[in-house]
Design a protein that fits this description.
heterodimer, A: 310 residues, mainly alpha, MetI-like fold, 2 domains, B: 364 residues, alpha+beta, Rossmann fold, OB fold (Dihydrolipoamide Acetyltransferase, E2P), 6-stranded mixed β-sheet, 6-stranded antiparallel β-sheet, 34% strand, binds adenosine-5'-triphosphate, binds magnesium ion
C-alpha cells in the first residue's frame, strides 16, 4: 500500500511523501509496546510462577530454585489451616456476593422507575465503585474506629466504651469486611441489573397485564427470567473477585485479628512476602486458587448459557 | 361475551388529540373493525378499551358496567398485539399457558385447554419451540392461541396481520374470521387495510385525524360514504369524485359534459347548494359503463386489463381522471374518446365545502 500513491484530499502530496509511514509500521508501533509489557508483567510471571510452584524457591535465599515435584501442593492441601482459610474465603464470598446481589437487584428495581432526579441518584450510588480500594480501606478504617468512627454511632452505639470494635474483634472483623465490600460493589451489580431491566420491552408487561398476571407473577415469570443472564454475569464477576479478595482486606485488617480475616489471597501474600518468603509455596497456593476460580466460573457460565436459552 | 359501549371517550397527549370525543356501541358477538390511515387514533382507541391507556374524558361500559378506570386485568379482555408481544424466554406452550397459570388453573386444566386451542389453530407441532425460532405466521398463531385460551369476554386485535406477508395475510384473515364465527366472541379489530376491513367486519368504524368519520356495515360505508374522506378511502381505487356545477337541473362537469340530475335528487341538491351552485358528484367505477351512445365522454388515458374486467382511466379534462370499470371485452385505443353512462341509483352527491354527503331525503 505504501508504494502506491493514493489520493488523499486532506494532506498535500509533498508532505505525504516525506511523512509516509506504512500501515504495517504503524501496526507494529502500536502493538509491540503493549505486547512486551503484557509478556513481561503477565505472561512471563504466569509461567515462571507455575515453574516455581514445583520448587522450594525463596526470593530471599541465595539458592537457585530446586525441583520438589508436587510437595508444595500436597503440603498445602494437607494443611488444616489452609482449609480453614478456604472455608473463610468461601463464607466471605457467599455473604458478600449474596448481599450485593440482593441489594443491587433491589436498588435496580427501584431505580428502574423513572422519577425526579433518578438519573442523578443513580450516578451518586455508583461513586463507591469508582474509588480506589486502598482509599476505601483507609477511610472505612476511620469509619469503623470505635472511639470516633461514625459507623457505631449510626447503628446506635453512642457510648464508645461499650461499642463494638469491628476490626479488632475476631467474630466481627469478617462482617466488617463484608460490609465494606457490599458498600463498594453493590453499585456494580445494580448497574448490570439496571441495564438488564431496561432491556425488557414494555409490551411484555402489557401482555402480562392483559393476561391477568399479578405483579408478583410478572416478577417471577417475566422480570427475573429476562434479567437472569445479566444478573448471573454480575454474580460471576463478583464471585471471582471475592475469591481474590485482597486489597480492601489488606487495607482494613491485613488478615487479622489473628487469622480472623485471613482470606486465601492474604495467605498467598503472607507466604510470599512475610517471614520466610516462601515463593514456591505461595506460587502453588496461587495456582490452587486459580483452579478453583476456573472451576466455579465454568459452573456459572454453564448456568448463564442455560438462562440465555431458557 | 360482552357489549362494549364508548360514551364521549377522548384521549389527549399533551394538547394534541389522539382521539376526539367518540361514541360507539359494539353488540355482543359483533366483529367491529376500526379502519383508518396511520396515526388516526385506532391503536389509542383500542388501548383505551383494553385499559392499557387511560381515557382523558368519557366513559367505557362493558355490559353496562363502568370499567373506565379498571385495570386491564379486571376487564376480562384479550389483546393481540401487532408485533405479537410473545414472552421470548418461554416456549410456545408456556406462552399459551401463561394466562391460565396466572389465574392459578390446575395443571390438568391448563394441559387440556392449551392442547385444545393448539389443535384449533393447528400449531401442535410447534408447541415446544420458542418464539424466536418461529415464522411470523406461527408467532401470530401462538399469540392468537394465548388470547383464545382464556375464553375472554372480548377480543381486541391491533393489526394482528400487519407484520405478515401479503399471501399469508389472506389465509390468516380467513382463519381469524372462522374463529370468530366459531367462538362468536365480541371482537374489535384494528387495521389500516380497507380490503381487510371490508372482508372481515360486521361493521366498520372509519377514522381519520382522531375523528370517527362513519360507522356502518361494509356495504353502507362502500355505497353510502358519509363524506369525501370515506368515499376516497374505501375501495381501490376509491370513489370517483368530480367537481361540477348545478344549474337548471343539470350538473356541468369538466370536459364539457352535462349530467342531467335524476328527478328524485333535485330537491335535495337544490336545498343543499342552492338553485345554482357547486356540487361534487361521486360514483364508484362500477357505477359507470362504457356505452356507445353514453351521455358523458372522456379521453382514454390508460387501460388496465384484469382478465375478468377492465379498468379504464378516462381524462375528462386536464388532471381530472376518473376510473370506469367495464365487464365488456373491449380495448379502446389510447387517446380515443370513450362515451359512458352512469347508473342513476349509484350516483352520490357531496357538498363541496362541508365535504359531507347530501342525502336524498332530509334525515331526522
Ligand atoms: N404515548 C403517546 N404519546 C404521545 N403521542 C402519542 C402516543 N401514542 C400515540 N400518540 C399519537 O396519537 C396519534 C394516534 O396514534 P395511534 O397509535 O392511535 O394511531 P394509529 O391509528 O394506531 O396509527 P398506526 O396505523 O400507525 O398504528 C398519533 O399522532 C400518535 O403520534
Ligand atoms: Mg396503531
Amino acid at each position: 500500500m505504501s508504494a502506491l500513491p493514493q489520493p488523499n484530499p486532506t494532506s498535500s502530496s509533498s508532505q505525504r511523501a516525506r511523512r509516509q509511514i506504512s500501515d504495517r509500521t504503524i501496526l507494529h508501533l502500536f502493538i509491540w509496546p503493549t505486547l512486551i509489557l503484557l509478556i513481561l508483567i503477565n505472561i512471563f510471571p504466569l509461567f515462571y510462577s507455575l515453574y516455581l510452584s514445583f520448587t522450594n524457591y525463596s526470593v530471599i535465599s541465595n539458592k537457585p530454585p530446586e525441583w520438589v515435584g508436587f510437595a508444595n501442593f500436597i503440603r498445602m492441601l494437607n494443611s488444616e489451616e489452609m482449609w480453614s482459610y478456604f472455608a473463610l474465603t468461601g463464607r466471605y464470598a457467599l455473604l458478600s456476593v449474596g448481599l450485593q446481589t440482593g441489594i443491587g437487584f433491589g436498588l435496580a428495581l427501584l431505580l428502574r422507575e423513572k422519577f425526579k432526579a433518578s438519573g442523578f441518584l443513580t450516578t451518586l450510588i455508583l461513586i463507591p465503585m469508582m474509588l480506589s480500594p486502598v482509599v476505601v480501606g483507609l477511610f472505612w478504617k476511620l469509619i469503623f474506629n470505635p472511639a470516633y468512627g461514625i459507623f457505631n454511632y449510626l447503628i446506635g452505639f453512642t457510648n464508645p466504651a461499650v461499642a463494638p470494635d469491628w476490626l479488632a474483634q475476631p467474630d466481627l472483623a469478617l462482617f466488617a469486611i463484608v460490609i465494606v465490600d457490599v458498600w463498594m460493589w453493590t453499585p456494580f451489580v445494580m448497574l448490570l441489573c439496571l441495564s438488564g431491566l431496561s432491556a425488557i420491552p414494555d409490551y411484555l408487561y402489557e401482555a402480562a397485564a392483559i393476561d391477568r398476571a399479578s405483579s408478583w407473577f410478572q416478577f417471577w415469570r417475566i422480570t427475573l427470567p429476562q434479567v437472569a443472564p445479566l444478573l448471573l454475569i454480575a454474580v460471576l464477576f463478583r464471585t471471582i473477585e471475592a475469591f481474590k479478595a485482597f486489597d480492601v482486606v489488606m487495607g482494613l485488617t491485613g488478615g487479622g485479628p489473628g487469622t480472623a480475616t485471613n482470606t486465601v489471597a492474604i495467605e498467598i501474600y503472607r507466604q510470599a512476602f512475610l517471614g520466610q518468603f516462601r515463593t514456591g509455596r505461595a506460587s502453588a497456593l496461587a495456582y490452587i486458587v486459580l483452579i478453583i476460580i476456573i472451576a466455579v466460573s465454568n459452573l456459572y457460565i454453564r448456568q448463564i448459557n442455560r438462562a440465555r436459552e431458557g | 361475551m360482552a357489549t362494549i359501549e364508548l360514551q364521549q371517550v377522548e384521549k389527549k397527549f399533551g394538547e394534541a388529540y389522539a382521539v376526539k370525543p367518540m361514541n360507539l356501541t359494539i353488540h355482543d358477538g359483533e366483529f367491529v373493525v376500526l379502519l383508518g390511515p396511520s396515526g388516526c387514533g385506532k391503536t389509542t382507541t383500542l388501548r383505551m378499551i383494553s385499559g392499557l391507556e387511560t381515557v382523558t374524558d368519557g366513559r367505557i361500559l362493558f355490559d353496562g358496567r363502568d370499567v373506565t378506570w379498571l385495570h386491564p386485568s379486571d376487564r376480562d379482555i384479550a389483546f393481540v398485539f401487532q408485533f405479537f408481544a410473545l414472552y421470548s424466554h418461554m416456549t410456545a406452550r408456556q406462552n399459551i399457558a401463561f394466562p391460565l397459570q396466572a389465574q392459578g388453573e390446575s395443571r390438568a386444566v391448563i394441559e387440556q385447554r392449551v392442547n385444545e386451542v393448539a389443535r384449533m389453530l393447528r400449531i401442535e407441532h410447534i408447541l415446544g419451540q420458542r418464539p424466536g425460532a418461529l415464522s411470523g405466521g406461527d408467532q401470530q398463531r401462538v399469540a392468537l392461541a394465548r388470547a383464545l385460551v382464556r375464553r375472554p369476554a372480548a377480543f381486541l386485535m391491533d393489526e394482528p396481520l400487519g407484520a405478515l406477508d401479503a399471501d399469508f395475510r389472506e389465509s390468516m384473515r380467513a382463519e381469524i374470521k372462522q374463529l370468530h364465527i366459531a367462538q362468536h366472541a365480541t371482537t374489535i379489530y384494528v387495521t389500516h387495510d380497507q380490503i381487510e376491513a371490508m372482508a372481515m367486519g360486521d361493521r366498520i368504524v372509519v377514522m381519520s385525524d382522531a375523528v370517527v368519520q362513519q360507522i356502518g356495515t361494509p356495504a353502507e360505508v362502500y355505497h353510502n360514504p358519509a363524506n369525501l374522506f370515506v368515499a376516497r378511502f374505501i375501495g381501490s381505487p376509491g370513489m370517483n369524485l368530480v367537481r361540477g356545477r348545478l344549474a337548471d337541473g343539470v350538473i356541468h362537469l369538466p370536459g364539457g359534459n352535462a349530467y342531467p340530475v335524476p328527478e328524485a335528487w333535485l330537491p335535495a341538491l337544490q336545498q343543499a347548494v342552492g338553485r345554482e351552485g357547486e356540487v361534487i358528484v361521486g360514483f364508484r367505477p362500477e357505477a359507470a359503463d362504457i356505452v356507445d351512445d353514453g351521455p358523458l365522454a372522456g379521453r382514454v388515458y390508460a387501460e388496465d386489463l384484469y382478465g375478468g374486467y377492465t379498468m379504464l382511466h378516462l381524462e375528462l379534462e386536464t388532471d381530472e381522471i376518473i376510473h370506469v370499470r367495464t365487464n365488456r371485452q373491449l380495448i379502446l385505443p389510447i387517446d380515443s374518446t370513450a362515451r359512458f353512462a352512469l347508473d342513476p341509483a349509484m350516483v352520490r352527491f357531496f357538498h363541496p365545502q362541508t365535504e359531507a354527503a347530501i342525502h336524498q331525503e332530509a334525515r331526522p
